[in-house]
Specification:
The complex is a heterodimer. By secondary structure, chain A is mostly helical. Chain A has one domain. Helix content of chain A is 66%, strand content 3%. Chain A contains 13 helices and three strands, in the order ααααβββααααααααα. Chain A has helices at 5-9, 13-33, 45-65, 71-92, 113-128, 143-157, 162-180, 183-203, 206-216, 225-238, 265-298, 302-326, 344-362; strands spanning 94-96, 99-104, 109-110. Chain A has a three-stranded antiparallel sheet with strand order 1-2-3, covered by helices on one side. Chain A is globular and about 60 Å long. Chain A starts with a helix and ends in a 5-residue tail after the last helix. Chain B is an alpha+beta fold. Chain B has two domains: 59-109 and 132-148 and 158-247, Penicillin-binding protein 2a (Domain 2) (Alpha-Beta Complex), CATH 3.90.1310.10; 251-299 and 308-609, 3-Layer(aba) Sandwich (Beta-lactamase). Helix content of chain B is 38%, strand content 22%. In chain B, strands 2, 3, 4, 5, 10, 18 and 19 form a seven-stranded mixed sheet that branches. In chain B, strands 12-11-23-22-21 form a five-stranded antiparallel sheet, with helices on both faces. Chain B has a three-stranded antiparallel sheet with strand order 1-8-9, with no helix packed on it. In chain B, helix 11 (251-261) packs antiparallel against helix 24. The longest helix of chain B has 31 residues, at 14-44. Chain B is elongated and about 105 Å long. In chain B, 44% of the residues are buried. The model of chain B is unreliable at 1-10 and 617-626 (pLDDT under 50). The chains are: A mainly alpha, B alpha+beta. At the A-B interface, helix 7, helix 10, helix 11 and helix 12 of A face helix 1, helix 2, helix 3, strand 1 and strand 8 of B.
């Protein structure tokens, strides 16, 4: 493939810069989360995250390398591959912390439910790329995407990984709304969802129910999940306006925080950087999303616009659910803070997502 | 090429643009809300959280659920939990931990070095974690610590229920004991809600009925001050006590059995022949489960597991012994049922029997003379049963033995039950890859050779014979009861199988077994009671094969002496209780074991005569006297 000079000229440096900025904040915070004062080091996780970032950059460049219209052809094979990997997880997956979510690749444990989020976006962007009906889609027009997304969500739920399953579902919902779902159909869908809640409740694991009940009634399990939430809130709240300074967090140091370098990394960050740091991080995420939404307005085809929107949706829901959980306004569900939390599969998938966005961005001039 | 086709899709995104505008609004609202929440936590409530975090003031105090009680068939308490206190120390709360411990040693008049050593042992653990410096401390210590609280920053007391076994050694093997969960066990038990430091049934009923006994732990999320003292309880979960387990055991009968065996190694089991209820089960030597409750010391544990007399083994279900002459009961049943034995036909016993080129001796020098089946059982004539066994054959003996539950675990809900061995030709082929030699049948016929049984199996066989052929599963637990919702589970009698016996067979054996005790020349005369007619069979199980002389037990070294058996039921005419006694290295069954069975049966009759209400009243009187 010949590299067009214009493409390099139009490369989206803003998105790349934001990506590297988030990743740096992430590695620094992972370092702090694992820092041991007595031994003055933080173990191997920060450098491993650096390796995952390298992998992420490769994923991003892969996503940038070819014209995004080829995704049209790759979307379904990619989806099929993810489905296959999730089925493999079910049978030969690696277990950790009570759930079976990973495939052991020797040097790396892949969590297929992470790239599955991307697969949903690619697949639906392809499905909705043609002009929508005048009054929007009705539910019965959408049975194909429903049938395709359902197995991904169910396979993730049985791992069990409620957080990721929720993200998959909510990204799907966002995509069909953007793709042009009728308002009335949307309301029907929400109603049906509410009606199915009690059935869904039945399928939840006891610890997942406990988390939700704990959120609704903090007094319920003050010694377990309720304890985590209060420790997380103490961490965030004690950060105050300016924070305790880098490596200065005490909640984290004393092992009071659960999953401190993964799902609760925002608690570590806010304890050390305070409200000022938190607002800066929020503004950075906000900037990324606003910038990307502006791209949608400038992209010339539906396909490109839907691709960008899908990726933004992934970012948006992760950030909102994760932070809301850490500050105690949502039940504890395991969702990472994108680009910041420790985890190779998540980081590489997010970098790939940003790569797709850069791809669309730099090729919007090619017509 | 793809690019060309895409031109048609150009400008296909006006709806997307329209929707995007709504999205800006969503973004602003959501991010605004998150920022507001952060502002609230970090600025408005910031001071409070800073305070909590600086002093690391939220602690969890776990309160393990009080374990359920164990009561006997009449509701008498056998196992209970009593309140006790552990002495805890949180190094972080003391400005100078060593100084505080020295103070503590002075107040408690304890060895300073010993206390400081506990600090050293726990050096690797985080300073905010509590370490146990005293387990089950006495009342004086509790008072001393409370009084000098101000001198002792970081020292706290933790109330904790401790197991109390009312009768000490008497029920040890049945009731079992608890132990602290080890790190390995914790891995698997964590999901069931156990935590470090929790106790867990390690043996006996405490282990097999752990699920119902354990209760649910509660706890408090507590805000503490800089000295580790409780300021306020933020949240609380109340603990739920475990269920009460109602046993089929009779505590008084259990005690009689234990006293009868005291000083010997052996076991006594008593069954209700009409239900399979285990009325008593003791094994000696025993151990005191209360030692485990207060925390067993390493030397004590080593002493128990290295003891040659194996005090931790429940001989009633884990001991596998040759049944000796008690097995003749079964051989007689097999012979009669298979139609091989003519009960009236007599044989002549000169004191030995030649089979092949080998001489098989009778236990009685000179033999029993002319004997029929009745007399062969009453006098336990070996030569009669050598011939009977030879005619019945080992495979048919094994068939009937298995019908009566020998050679298989009874399935009583007790841990580590053993099955014993009932050999037949197929068993021998599989086990040794050898054919069965007819001479071996002769040993089997008198309960020697490969045959081994547990005492529980033998007594269950006797119970089935006593009730005319119903084999029940021995039952230890009657009912599980919760304090607030009443009966949770109930376990009724469970039939393993009905053994179809000819009425004449049952009648003949009942007669013969009664004459073992009360007839002339009967081997069980020592069990004769003035209170009740007892039927039974003696047995003497050889530990080493004796060649040559007829030695008396006393002439053999202790561990080579024979085991003494007595299997019995009573009343002989209308059986209600079956009792087995095994005395290890006790010599002859008639002398060592039969009197013990008599004691237990007489006690049973005495207890039956008392109406339950009267017994209850007397027991309460007893407790008050304590």
């Amino acid at each position: 493939m010949q590299i067009d000079r214009r493409l390099i000229a139009h490369f989206d440096w803003t998105l790349l810069a934001l990506a590297l900025l988030f990743a740096s904040i992430g590695i620094a915070t992972i370092y702090s989360a694992n820092y041991n004062i007595a031994e003055a080091h933080a173990g191997g996780l920060p450098s491993r995250q650096l390796i995952w970032l390298g992998l992420g950059i490769i994923a991003m460049l892969t996503a940038v390398a070819f014209d995004y219209h080829y995704i049209d052809r790759l979307a379904y094979p990619f989806y099929a591959a993810m489905l296959l990997l999730l089925v493999l997880v079910l049978f030969v997956g690696h277990s950790g912390g009570g759930s079976q979510r990973w495939l052991n690749l020797g040097f790396f444990r892949l969590q297929p439910s992470e790239p599955a989020k991307i697969a949903i976006v690619l697949m639906l962007a392809k499905y909705f790329q043609n002009t929508e009906p005048p009054n929007g889609f009705r539910l019965r027009d959408l049975w194909v995407p429903f049938m395709m997304v359902a197995p991904l969500v169910i396979l993730t739920l049985v791992q069990p990984d409620l957080g990721t399953a929720i993200i998959l579902g909510i990204v799907f919902l966002s995509m069909i709304l953007m793709g042009g779902l009728r308002t009335r159909s949307f309301l029907c869908l929400v109603g049906a969802g509410l009606a199915f809640l009690p059935i869904g409740w039945h399928f939840l694991k006891p610890y997942q129910r406990a988390r939700i009940l704990t959120f609704l009634d903090p007094d319920r399990d003050p010694l377990g999940a309720g304890y985590h939430v209060i420790q997380s809130k103490i961490a965030v709240g004690s950060g105050g306006l300016f924070g305790k300074g880098y490596l200065g967090g005490t909640q984290n140091r004393l092992d009071f925080l659960p999953a401190q370098h993964t799902d609760f990394i925002f608690a570590v960050f806010s304890e050390e950087w305070g409200l000022v740091g938190c607002l800066i991080l929020l503004v950075l995420y906000f900037a990324l999303m606003v910038y990307s939404l502006r791209l949608i307005e400038r992209v010339k085809d539906r396909f490109g616009g839907l691709l960008i929107f899908g990726m933004v949706a992934i970012f948006f829901w992760h950030v909102v659910i994760n932070i809301a959980m850490v500050v105690g306004v949502m039940p504890v569900v395991g969702v990472p803070l994108p680009m910041v939390s420790y985890g190779g599969s998540s980081l590489a998938s997010m970098m790939f997502a940003l790569g797709v966005m850069i791809n669309v961005s730099m090729r919007r001039y090619t017509f | 090429m793809a690019l060309l086709t895409d031109i048609t899709r150009q400008d296909g995104a006006p709806e997307l643009r329209r929707r995007t505008r709504v999205l800006y609004l969503v973004l602003i609202l959501v991010f605004g809300a998150l920022a507001a929440r952060l502002f609230f936590l970090q600025v408005i409530d910031g001071e409070r959280y800073t305070f909590l975090s600086e002093n690391n003031r939220v602690r969890i105090k776990r309160i393990p659920g009080t374990r359920g009680m164990v009561v006997d068939r009449g509701g008498q308490l056998m196992v209970d939990s009593r309140p006790s206190f552990d002495l805890l120390f949180v190094a972080e709360d003391a400005e100078e931990p060593e100084q505080t411990l020295r103070q503590l040693a002075r107040h408690l008049k304890r060895d300073e070095k010993e206390l400081l050593a506990t600090l050293e042992e726990n050096k690797k653990r985080p300073a905010f974690e509590e370490i146990v410096v005293g387990k089950d401390v006495d009342w004086a210590t509790v008072v001393a610590v409370e009084t000098h609280q101000l001198d002792l920053p970081g020292v706290t007391l933790r109330a904790r229920p401790r197991r109390s076994y009312a009768d000490g050694q008497i029920g040890a093997h049945v009731l079992g004991y608890l132990g602290e969960i080890g790190p390995k066990q914790l891995k698997t038990l964590k999901e069931q809600g156990y935590a470090t430091g929790d106790e867990f049934g390690q043996y006996g009923l405490e282990k097999t009925w752990e699920y119902f006994l354990r209760g649910q732990s509660g706890g408090q999320q507590v805000e503490v001050d800089a000295l580790g003292r409780r300021v306020r309880v933020l949240h609380e979960v109340t603990d739920v006590p475990g269920y009460t387990v109602h046993l089929t055991l009779d505590r008084e009968l259990q005690e009689t059995a234990f006293q009868a065996l005291k000083g010997k190694e052996g076991t006594i089991v008593a069954l209700d022949v009409n239900t399979g209820d285990i009325l008593a089960m003791v094994s000696t030597p025993a151990f005191d489960p209360n030692v485990f409750a207060r925390g067993i010391k390493s030397e004590e544990w080593q002493g128990l597991i290295k003891d040659r007399l194996r005090p931790l083994s429940n001989r009633a279900i884990q001991g596998q012994y040759p049944p000796g002459s008690t097995f003749k009961v079964l051989v007689a049943i097999a012979g009669l049922e298979e139609g091989v034995l003519q009960p009236e036909s007599r044989i002549s016993d000169p004191g030995y029997y030649y089979f092949g080129n080998r001489q098989f001796r009778d236990w009685k020098k000179g033999g029993h003379g002319s004997v029929d089946l009745h007399r062969a059982i009453v006098e336990s004539c070996d030569v009669y049963f050598y011939q009977a066994g030879q005619r019945i054959g080992v495979d048919r003996i094994a068939k009937w033995a298995r019908a009566f539950g020998l050679g298989e675990k009874s399935g009583a809900v007790l841990d580590d039950e053993k099955g014993g061995i009932i050999p037949d030709s197929e068993w021998k082929r599989k086990r040794f890859r050898q054919p069965w030699y007819p001479g071996e049948t002769l040993s089997v016929a008198i309960g020697q050779g490969y045959v081994t049984t547990t005492p529980l199996q033998l007594v269950n066989m006797m119970a089935a014979l006593a009730n005319g052929g119903t084999l029940y599963r021995p039952r230890m637990v009657k009912k599980i009861e919760s304090a607030d919702s009443g009966t949770v589970r109930e376990y009724g009698p469970e039939k393993i199988r009905t053994i179809h016996l000819k009425p004449t067979t049952v009648e003949r054996l009942h007669k013969a077994l009664a004459d073992v005790v009360k007839g002339a020349g009967g081997t069980g005369g020592a069990a004769r009671s003035s209170v009740v007619d007892i039927a039974g069979k003696t047995g003497t199980a050889q530990v080493v094969e004796m060649k040559g002389a007829y030695l008396k037990s006393e002439q053999l070294s202790y561990f080579n002496r024979d085991h003494a058996w007595f299997v019995s039921y009573a009343p002989a005419q209308n059986p209600r209780i079956a009792v087995v006694v095994l005395v290890e290295h006790g010599g002859h069954g008639g002398e060592a074991a039969a009197p013990m069975a008599k004691k237990v049966i007489e006690k049973y009759v005495q207890l039956q005569a008392q109406p339950p209400e009267q017994r209850q009243a007397r027991i309460q009187g007893d407790t008050r006297a304590d």
